[in-house]
Design goal:
The chain is built from 3 helices and 6 strands; from the N terminus they run αββαββββα. It is an alpha+beta fold. Strands 1, 2, 3, 4, 5 and 6 form a 6-stranded antiparallel β-sheet that branches. The longest helix is centred in the N-terminal third of the chain and has 19 residues.
């Protein structure tokens, strides 16, 4: 009886611990540095408007905006809030840092938005915390968020 209990306990605890450990550690180096967001790592699980335009794996053009920055930020923030499993971690006058959590494995992606008021461009960086490949999730997320966004 004890052996069966132990097998059951291990069989339910180990997968649970695996799922809980997919969140990773929140980075402490995000934010606007010298007027830019952090560069993408070499792994293919990141997309950024600051990547080299010739880097087709990581680059996606920034989105222009015409509304006042505070209004554009509120519109983007509402779209983010309408997306499941999101948590706004930091909000400033022209910056948002958001965590996105996947449904099944509970992977966390760190997503930043920077409204560059000089160029009137919305810059972004979306990166997985763990692993190498994201199967295009970060790029799809940015494309979905920016699609038909009237800012």
């Amino acid at each position: 009886m004890k052996k069966q209990y132990l097998i059951t306990l291990i069989g339910t605890t180990v997968p649970l611990l695996f799922f809980l450990n997919c969140t990773g550690t929140r980075p402490d180096n995000l934010g606007i540095r010298s007027g830019k967001l952090l560069e993408c790592p070499a792994t293919p699980n990141c997309v950024s408007s600051y990547a080299d335009p010739s880097d087709k794996e990581h680059f996606r053009a920034p989105a222009p905006y015409t509304k006042p920055t505070n209004e554009a930020l509120l519109i983007l923030k509402q779209r983010i809030k309408d997306t499941p499993r999101t948590k706004i971690i930091k909000e400033e006058n022209n910056y948002l840092y958001v965590e996105y959590t996947s449904l099944l494995m509970r992977y966390v992606d760190d997503v930043e938005f920077y409204f560059d008021e000089k160029s009137k461009l919305l810059h972004f960086r979306s990166a997985s915390r763990l692993g190498k490949s994201d199967l295009g999730v970060n790029r799809k997320r940015i494309e979905t968020l920016l699609k038909d966004l009237s800012i």
